[in-house]
Amino acid sequence: xxxxxxxxxxxxxxxxxxxxxxxxxxxxxxxxxxxxxxxxxxxxxxxxxxxxxxxxxxxxxxxxxxxxxxxxxxxxxxxxxxxxxxxxxxxxxxxxxxxxxxxxxxxxxxxxxxxxxxxxxxxxxxxxxxxxxxxxxxxxxxxxxxxxxxxxxxxxxxxxxxxxxxxxxxxxxxxxxxxxxxxxxxxxxxx
Length: 191
Description:
This protein is α+β, with helices and mostly antiparallel strands. It has helices at residues 3-22, 100-108, 119-123; strands at 46-48, 69-78, 84-93, 110-115, 131-137, 148-150, 158-166, 182-190. It has a domain at 46-170 and 183-190. The longest helix is centred in the N-terminal third of the chain and has 20 residues, at 3-22. The mean pLDDT is 87.
């Protein structure tokens, strides 16, 4: 038998063996019914002043002049069942149709937010003490340097913030007679 014929027959036999070996694979499958455990979800709730939408009336009605301030405590609480972190997410003038004096005043105001100050001392207009969380102008970019954490277990946590609004002594005359409806926006996130 010629040598090329031997190679051709060997190649054909190996090809047939290779093709037939592919068809011998087996699939194994097993099934079992499992009773899944009950899944529960937690709730996330951040309250300011004990409410989801709080009107900060303690700062309203102040007739501020350049160089003066008003301040009041604000209680922030975790009313949910999971730990949360929260952040100041803007401090803006929420007046519906602000006049040019309103806009000038909002641009001149300075906001300071401190944690750890005794609420009674804050109400009594004592110097700010504790941890400075924010100090700067009003605006949608106003935020704490880092998020604050409030736990939920074993008892939901809360903290008192001291919020101060001040008019710098060098405020522009165009801010005279302006009115501001301060809206502090907070955002909470599950930890």
